[in-house]
From TrEMBL:
Keywords: Calcium, Cleavage on pair of basic residues, Disulfide bond, Glycoprotein, Hydrolase, Membrane, Protease, Serine protease, Signal, Transmembrane, Transmembrane helix, Zymogen. The chain crosses the membrane at residues 889-912. InterPro entries: Furin_repeat, Galactose-bd-like_sf, Growth_fac_rcpt_cys_sf, Kexin/furin, P_dom, Peptidase_S8/S53_dom, Peptidase_S8/S53_dom_sf, Peptidase_S8_Asp-AS. Residues 976-992 have a biased composition (Basic and acidic residues). GO terms for molecular function: serine-type endopeptidase activity. SUPFAM superfamilies: Galactose-binding domain-like, Growth factor receptor domain, Subtilisin-like. Its cofactor is Ca(2+). It comes from Heterodera schachtii. PROSITE patterns: P_HOMO_B, SUBTILASE, SUBTILASE_ASP, SUBTILASE_HIS, SUBTILASE_SER. It comes from the Eukaryota. This is P/Homo B domain-containing protein.
């Protein structure tokens, strides 16, 4: 299959991708091809800032000449590649990568003009798909902070121990006796507050990374270091810079970075050398690729190395953290990522761990780093010894979790190995954080080797612990109740919890991608100038007609903006469930005048949310210069996720309506920001426009007088127009809409009124409303012509006929089947209306439904200690979880008092009839009874009228109060009241007999 696309590199050369080569074992499903095609069209055209280019005094820019070229053949043919290279005065070096890509180098001393002519001729040869001019990029290691290694290694730290390759070793008893083990404060609970990353718990469970291979993509590793040699893996190693198999770095004092990172992961335990690696029984290798010119092909070859053997790739480098660079992977590196997650590890996908960046002191953001904003990487941040943000930390919503690292020279840093044959206690930066994360993930892969790349991201964010870091500002709670931070992601990695969850984890469902492109009204593109705030809304249905996404994972915003000072721009994304992600904060050092083109901003902070509803992108400028301007061109929303919950025990959203959990305040936040702009400036700018006078009363600033559709923001409610390209401001939501915060959203077509999009309160025409608020029924709030199986029509409430559960005539602990047979409830149910734990009305003794929505067994004390995820904590009270099962006792009491009331009513009617007869035939035995007392009868009648009135009101409230959980119980109470028990009827028949005898 051939795909045609083109992009433009930072050097201005057109890049041709005539064919995307796939290995034979790659999936050929259409969604996979569509995804790669989408990236080729939208992401591959990103303009990079990191090419080695310099500008002279005259303004002319010159870029470094390429050190090599990449020859791409239609299919792999090593002999043909060498033949073509020889015929054109070049040489092939190293192994091919991405199946049919070859490094070719010009002969030494070849003239530049002759070299270019050879390149032009070679690209036209038969079997050649492309010849890529691969210019070097700026790439930096992320540990530049400070370095205070030991002056000389201790004698015991230089001991070499000959170890059988990959020998199986027993886990030593803790504590280890390695000389620097007690200095590894982040492993032994010596961070402030006695915190650590709970690695010892995983070790004591027997996990140390056996049979897991990790490769450090860096400046090489010292493979014969005494603390690494026993775990060294040649199959996870190579030298891309010199095109051989030996990853040993140059011994020039600068190339120790990769060796240090390797020691964090896999330093041997119990050998009396240095400290201990997190996964001290794992296989460790290294790729020497930073010790020379780094280009797209160098990165791709590193990422593509032996993807069937290597499990985890750890990278502690990236674009310059200077606060003014936007850069990411090129076309070849993107293809290597894609091949890794699609075909690596036998189709389970390689794990790519990335350091988030060290540009915090320059107010840089990792959102400008295309490696950390890739959905295929786990972006790892850092925390200090005292559980604070380090001064170098970069903020972005793509960060998934955090590990410990260094802060300043007065605080302990990371302990690891050093070159040559030594140790260091001063490894620093986010460079130190990524390898620690890779080691922890290796423990999880040993516990469950079937984990996929997406499974790994799920369990990392679910088990991350925010508690040690909550003393830092910036934490918030997302739409599914998880704490999130642009500094620390979901919190500090917890190895013990990660391994426990990995052991029971089931592979997640197939990944879907749903894309929405915003249609911009005229003028297109929209002019922007000075200080402004624009918000753009998209109504999202979750692609229910294509590849549905009901449970979010990654969310990307791909946008093109050109502005006079790129660093003044700020982008914020709001999800329908109320989560706010700052995609791009202002970067004062970034004076770039070009902006960004099709840049993929990523957030993982909406993970697990229901995407259906209104998404809002807020684009702001903090510029104080009214003369700075530009254009806003476009934006698209990419939603990645699944149609089914990630795990069977996860909360399930209704397939017919968005999640019932919506947090107000998104629109209020937008309105507040716009109102601040109104108060601070005499005119309100909306792009290149300014507010006119005589705005509509519902407007806060406007572009046209007395128009509800030309408002900058709204005072009360915002109603999105049908074309989704604008909105109007209203005081109250119109009929057919419902209020959600300060937004008016459209009801489903069957709803006359509603409280959510497809949660009707009243139906059109004569349709019935399904009224079953229960976990096992997902159709609650739908309007139907006839009741579905298991429900019966209830026409007694004349305001709106309903479909309700069939009344259970069986005794407690049983339910009535379709054949009118009483069957026993599930053991977890005290009462139920059907089989299984999902259909309990009330949980049995020893069971509860506090968290999952159905009855689960209470946890034992041991399970509570181990934080078991498969039981309920019954030691706490949960008043907020009030469901029908909690109201069953109230229903029984209501039935009892209803029967008593009916008996009293019958008695009163008898007395009234008797007195009426006495009045009409008063000349009988009683004579004239002028002193007959009617007062008690009047009082009883008034009480009855009041009781009837209360019953009618309650019947009405059962329709109107959407928050009440006892609607069906009220209806059942009335039904029980109408059908009297035999004892009540017998009592009523006996009353007049006794009176007659008296």
């Amino acid at each position: 299959m051939r795909w045609q696309c083109s992009g433009k590199s930072g050097s201005g050369k057109r890049l041709r991708i005539r064919q995307l080569p796939f290995s034979a074992n790659l999936p050929t499903a259409l969604p996979a091809l569509f995804l790669l095609n989408f990236f080729a069209k939208n992401v591959a055209s990103i303009a990079h800032d990191s090419l080695y280019c310099e500008t002279d005094k005259t303004g002319r820019q010159s870029c470094a000449e390429p050190s090599h070229y990449v020859l791409k053949l239609a299919r792999r043919d090593d002999d043909l590649a060498k033949q073509y290279a020889d015929e054109h005065g070049m040489a092939v070096k190293g192994e091919p990568f991405l199946d049919s890509h070859y490094f070719i180098y010009p002969q030494t001393g070849a003239e530049l003009r002759r070299r270019k002519r050879s390149v032009d001729q070679l690209v036209d040869r038969i079997g050649v798909d492309d010849l890529i001019i691969d210019r070097p990029k700026r790439r930096v290691k992320r540990d530049y902070l400070f370095d205070q290694s030991f002056v000389g290694p201790r004698p015991e730290e230089r001991i070499r121990r000959q170890t059988t390759f990959f020998e199986r070793r027993e886990v030593p008893k803790l504590p280890f006796h390695d000389p620097l083990y007690q200095d590894q404060w982040y492993l032994v609970g010596r961070a402030v507050g006695s915190f650590d990353m709970n690695v010892r718990e995983a070790w004591l469970m027997g996990y140390a990374g056996r049979n897991v291979s990790i490769s450090i993509l860096d400046d090489g590793i010292q493979r014969d270091h005494p603390d690494l040699v026993g775990n060294y893996d040649p199959l996870s190693s190579t030298d891309i810079n010199d095109h051989d198999s030996d990853p040993t770095p140059q011994n020039n004092g600068d190339n120790k970075h990769g060796t240090r990172c390797a020691g964090e992961v896999a330093a041997l335990a119990g050998n009396n050398v240095c400290g201990v690696g997190v996964a001290f029984l794992s296989k460790i290798g290294g790729v020497r690729m930073l010790d020379g010119p780094v280009s797209d092909s160098v990165e791709a070859a590193s990422l593509n190395l032996n993807q069937q053997h290597i499990d985890i790739y750890s990278a502690s480098w990236g674009p310059e953290d200077d606060g003014k660079t936007f850069d990411g992977p090129g076309n070849l590196a993107q293809e290597a990522f894609y091949r890794g997650i699609k075909a690596g590890r036998g189709g389970r996908g390689n794990i790519f761990v990335w350091a988030s960046g060290n540009g915090g002191s320059r107010q840089d953001s990792c959102s400008a780093d295309g490696y950390t904003t890739s959905i295929y990487t786990l972006s790892i941040s850092s925390a200090t010894y005292d559980n604070h943000r380090p001064w170098y930390l970069e903020e972005c919503p793509s960060t998934i979790a955090t590990t410990y690292s260094s802060a300043n020279i007065n605080q302990p840093a990371i302990v690891t190995v050093d070159v040559p044959n030594g140790c260091t206690k001063m490894h620093t930066g986010t460079s130190a954080s990524a390898p620690l994360a890779a080691g922890i993930i290796a423990l999880a892969l040993e516990a469950n080797p079937s984990l996929t790349w997406r499974d790994t991201q799920h369990i990392v964010l679910r088990t991350a612990n925010p508690n040690p870091l909550l003393n830092n500002a910036g934490w918030s709670i997302n739409g599914v109740g998880r704490r999130i931070s642009n500094k620390f992601g979901y919190g500090l990695m917890d190895a013990g919890a990660l391994v426990k969850l990995a052991r029971v984890w089931k592979n997640v469902p197939e990944q879907h991608m749903c894309t929405y492109e915003y249609s911009l009204d005229a003028p297109r593109p929209r002019p922007i100038q000075g200080r402004f705030a624009l918000n753009f809304t998209l109504e999202v249905s979750g692609c229910q007609q294509g590849t549905p996404v009901l449970y979010l994972e990654h969310v990307q915003v791909i946008t093109t903006i050109r502005f006079g000072k790129r660093g003044d721009l700020k982008l914020t994304l709001f999800s329908p469930m109320g989560t706010r992600s700052v995609l791009l904060p202002p970067r004062p050092q970034d004076f770039n005048q070009n902006g960004f083109h099709k840049w993929p901003f990523l957030t993982v902070q909406m993970w697990g949310e229901d995407p259906r509803g209104v998404w809002t992108l807020l684009v702001e400028s903090i510029s104080n210069n009214p003369n700075i301007g530009g254009i806003f061109s476009d934006w698209a929303l990419l939603l990645y996720g699944t149609e089914e919950p990630a795990q069977p025990s996860d909360q399930r959203y209704s397939p017919y309506a968005p999640s019932a959990y919506r947090r107000p305040g998104i629109g209020q936040a937008l309105t507040s920001q716009n109102e601040t702009t109104v108060e601070e400036a005499s005119t309100v700018r909306f792009g290149s426009l300014q507010s006119v006078g005589d705005c509509h009363p519902e407007c806060v600033g406007c572009s046209e007088p007395r128009s509800q559709t030309a408002c900058f923001s709204c005072r009360h409610f915002t109603l999105t127009l049908r074309n989704r390209a604008g909105f109007k401001c209203v005081e109250h939501c119109e009929e057919g809409f419902y209020a959600d915060g300060d937004k008016c959203k459209r009801c489903a077509t069957d709803c006359e009124t509603c409280s959510q999009a497809e949660l009707c309160d009243k139906c059109h025409d004569a349709k019935l409303l399904i009224d079953v608020k229960h976990y096992g029924h997902l159709d609650h709030g739908r309007c139907v012509a006839t009741c579905p199986e298991g429900l019966v029509a209830d026409y007694r409430l004349t305001i709106q006929a309903k479909c309700v559960l069939r009344r259970n005539s069986c005794s407690a602990g049983y339910f009535e089947s379709a054949q009118s047979v009483c069957l026993e409830c599930d053991k977890s149910c005290a009462t139920c209306h059907g089989p299984g734990p999902l259909q309990c009305d009330e949980c049995a003794q020893g069971f509860a439904n506090h968290t999952m929505g159905y009855c689960r067994q209470c946890c034992s004390p041991d399970q509570l200690t181990q934080k078991d995820l498969h039981c309920e904590d019954c030691s706490k009270s949960y008043p907020e979880f009030r469901t029908k099962s909690h109201l069953s006792m109230l229903s029984l009491l209501a039935n009892f008092f209803t029967i008593i009331g009916l008996v009293l009513l019958g008695t009163v009617l008898f007395y009234l009839c008797r007195q009426l007869i006495c009045c009409c035939f008063g000349n009988g035995r009683n004579g004239n009874r002028s002193d007959l007392e009617y007062t008690p009868l009047t009082t009883i009648g008034d009480d009855l009228d009041g009781r009837k009135k209360d019953q009618k009101q309650n019947m009405g409230f059962a329709l109107e109060d959407d928050e009440s959980e006892s609607d069906n119980d009220d209806a059942e109470s009335l039904m029980e009241g109408e059908k009297r028990s035999p004892e009540a009827e017998k009592q009523q028949r006996e009353v007049p007999t006794e009176e007659a005898e008296s």
